[in-house]
């Protein structure tokens, strides 16, 4: 037996389901996806096969001649879900499983019309990373078990279904329903299975890109994300051809728990990116970078998550630099420094969770999600880049992407390849410290700074000595500079200072969600009551984890704001995604 992924029952000594055929109906009344999956195995030896499931009802398992296949659905364990154990007779190379998802499937969120922009139709979306594909489909839910699939999704008319796959058109369907067909020809890790259903429309924004959103948002979304083709061109010039044919976007309702999710061909996005001025499109650049780092070369398990996210943050900043120059990349390093510092402080710099290569047996990956793999991971690659020089490091990263394309690898495989391609580099930067030791190594590079960057942080630093930026200075700031300024202000602030800040920076009218949330965090931490209606309204509407943690965290830091935080959560939580609900509940319980 060879189970190498602590978050899956996948056993690579058993037959492997390399291709799935899915036929599913979405029923909004019962909040279930129901239908069947055909698993096509890579051999017909038969024998035991263990699949991952969570909350699924399994009606029957049979072979293609309708012969029943014996199966056992084991008891629910913590974190992993239920093992579905099959006994395949020799000669079996495909099976069909009739099943339905649970109304609380951890990988799905079913929304009421009131939670959408249009308010007239319900909405459904999936979020399978890290280990939720098993709550949609019985599968070998480990990133090592890559698969291709075809799918047909039947939904109530007039709704539209989309998947992170190639569209294969609409099929004839029973009255009152529509059936959409899809195909994913490239082998993907199961966590990249993705679907959404809603009152969706699309708008083409480039030769290989369109933007999907609810009908009422599609024009705004097309304007916000008009620059996709130039991003693709810049990324391809750095990392080689884009292998997924299309790069489309889907803007989800505000309860979507992430900023973005790199579902192949169809990146899922939070609507909080719609700032009106394209100031938050770096999230799209990040999800695009995953097309190489993450989707093409994938972490073998959650214990190697930094290979996905650290490499993607590094790649994202290289693309930003290619598009907008070194200043833009520097700003990106700088505005994300606080999230690294905060995560280090939260875990403690001796915590094993601050290693890049983690050990997560018995640990729920959603519970330990943090900026560490992102920002520490990116700094590790950056220090290697500084060590060997940009030209050699770029050549290395391109070779890495070619060598491991469409595979899923471990930290150790990365290091072995690094040593073969750039001998001595790992030792020179003390790679083992970065990878296997907690905290930030002493060799952490000091990031390059620009005059603008220094000016903004100096302005914030002088707050304590009473210096305030004048209107001309403030209006010359880019949205990112304003964010940086707010991040560097001391807190708590006096109510007079809060009032001054709100007025001088015109914070009430800001549409950039990063600026809004940074301001709300200062206001919450300072018990500044005039900001409460806006904070409450935001928390009621938006379910993005990145914002919920600091906002509820800041409110809970003051005795006086705690009852407010609890009251907001009580009314907002039914609309939150399950992952968000669990995370906030943990913050309120501490
Ligand atoms: N793949 C992640 C989102 C994710 C990670 C979902 C782990 C579930 C489990 C995505 O690429 C991501 O990192 N999104 C970030 C934005 C990015 C710019 C750092 C987010 O959601 O904030
Ligand atoms: Zn990412």
Task: Record keyword descriptors for this entry.
590 residues, alpha+beta, 7-stranded mixed β-sheet, 5-stranded mixed β-sheet, 19 helices, 21 strands, globular, binds ligand BES, binds zinc ion
Which oligomeric form is depicted?
Answer: single chain
Q: Report strand %.
A: 15-25%
Q: What is the average of the pLDDT values? A: 98
Unreliable segments (pLDDT under 50, ≥5 consecutive)? none
Record field, number of beta strands: 21
Distance between the termini: 40 Å
Can you give a write-up of this model?
The radius of gyration is 24 Å and the shape is globular. By secondary structure, it is an alpha+beta fold. A hairpin with a 4-residue loop joins strand 1 and strand 2 (32-41). The protein contains 19 helices and 21 strands. Helix 4 (305-324) packs antiparallel against helix 5 (326-347) and helix 17 packs parallel to helix 19 (578-589). The strands form five sheets. The chain has a seven-stranded mixed sheet with strand order 4-7-2-1-10-13-12, with no helix packed on it. Strands 15-16-17-19-18 form a five-stranded mixed sheet. A four-stranded antiparallel sheet has the order 8-9-14-11, with no helix packed on it. It has helices at residues 218-224, 228-239, 282-289, 305-324, 326-347, 372-388, 390-403, 411-421, 425-428, 431-436, 451-461, 471-476, 479-487, 495-504, 513-525, 532-541, 545-556, 562-572, 578-589, and strands at residues 17-27, 32-41, 47-53, 57-63, 71-73, 82-88, 94-100, 108-111, 123-126, 147-156, 160-163, 166-171, 177-188, 195-198, 200-206, 209-214, 248-251, 260-261, 266-269, 297-299, 407-409. The mean pLDDT is 98.
């Amino acid at each position: 037996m060879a189970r190498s992924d602590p978050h899956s029952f996948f056993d690579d000594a058993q037959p492997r389901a390399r291709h799935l055929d899915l036929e599913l109906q979405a029923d909004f009344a019962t909040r279930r996806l129901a239908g069947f999956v055909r698993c096509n195995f890579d051999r017909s030896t038969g024998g035991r096969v263990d699949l991952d499931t969570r909350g699924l009802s399994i009606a029957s398992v049979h072979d293609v001649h309708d012969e029943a296949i014996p199966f056992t659905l084991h008891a629910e364990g913590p974190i992993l879900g239920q093992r579905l154990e099959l006994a395949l007779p020799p000669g079996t190379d495909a099976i069909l499983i009739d099943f339905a998802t649970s109304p609380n499937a951890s990988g799905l969120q079913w929304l009421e019309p009131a939670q959408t922009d249009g308010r007239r139709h319900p909405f459904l979306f999936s979020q399978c990373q890290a280990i939720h594909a098993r709550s949609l489909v019985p599968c070998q839910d480990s990133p090592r078990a890559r698969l291709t699939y075809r799918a047909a999704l039947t939904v109530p008319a007039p709704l539209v279904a989309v998947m992170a796959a190639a569209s294969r058109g609409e099929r004839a369907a029973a009255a009152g329903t529509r059936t959409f067909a899809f195909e994913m020809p490239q082998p993907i890790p199961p966590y990249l299975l993705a679907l959404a259903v809603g009152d969706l429309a699309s708008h083409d924004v480039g030769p290989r890109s369109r933007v999907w959103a609810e009908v009422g948002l599609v024009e705004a979304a097309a304007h916000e994300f008009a620059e996709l083709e130039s991003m693709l061109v810049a990324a391809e010039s750095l990392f080689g051809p884009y292998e997924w044919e299309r790069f489309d976007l889907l803007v989800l309702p505000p309860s979507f728990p992430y900023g973005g999710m790199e579902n192949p061909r169809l990146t899922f996005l939070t609507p909080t990116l719609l700032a009106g001025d394209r100031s938050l499109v770096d999230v799209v650049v990040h999800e695009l970078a995953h097309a190489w780092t993450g989707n093409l070369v994938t972490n073998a398990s959650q214990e190697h998550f930094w290979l996905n996210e650290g490499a993607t943050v590094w790649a994202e900043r290289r693309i930003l630099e290619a598009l907008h120059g070194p200043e833009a990349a520097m700003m990106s390093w700088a505005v994300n420094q606080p999230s690294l510092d905060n995560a280090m402080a939260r875990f403690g710099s001796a915590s094993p969770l601050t290693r890049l290569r983690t050990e997560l047996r018995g640990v729920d990956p959603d519970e330990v999600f943090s900026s560490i793999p992102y920002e520490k991971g990116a700094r590790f690659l950056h220090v290697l880049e500084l060590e060997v020089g940009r030209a050699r490091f770029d050549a290395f990263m391109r070779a890495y992407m070619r060598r491991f394309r469409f595979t899923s690898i471990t930290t150790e495989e990365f290091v072995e390849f690094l040593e073969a391609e750039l001998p001595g580099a790992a030792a020179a930067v003390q790679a083992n410290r970065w990878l296997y030791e907690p905290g930030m190594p002493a060799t952490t590079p000091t990031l390059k700074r620009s005059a603008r960057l220094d000016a903004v942080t100096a302005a914030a630093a002088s707050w304590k000595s009473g210096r305030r930026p004048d209107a001309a200075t403030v209006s010359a700031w880019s949205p990112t500079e304003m964010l940086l300024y707010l991040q560097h202000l001391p807190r708590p602030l006096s109510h007079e200072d809060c009032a001054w800040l709100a007025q001088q920076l015109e914070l009430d009218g800001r549409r950039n969600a990063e600026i809004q949330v940074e301001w709300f965090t200062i206001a919450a931490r300072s018990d500044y009551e005039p900001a409460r209606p806006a904070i409450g309204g935001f928390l009621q509407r938006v379910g993005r984890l990145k914002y919920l943690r600091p906002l509820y965290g800041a409110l809970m830091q003051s005795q006086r704001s705690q009852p407010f935080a609890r009251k907001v959560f009580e009314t907002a939580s039914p609309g939150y995604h399950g992952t968000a609900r669990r995370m906030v509940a943990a913050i309120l319980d501490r």
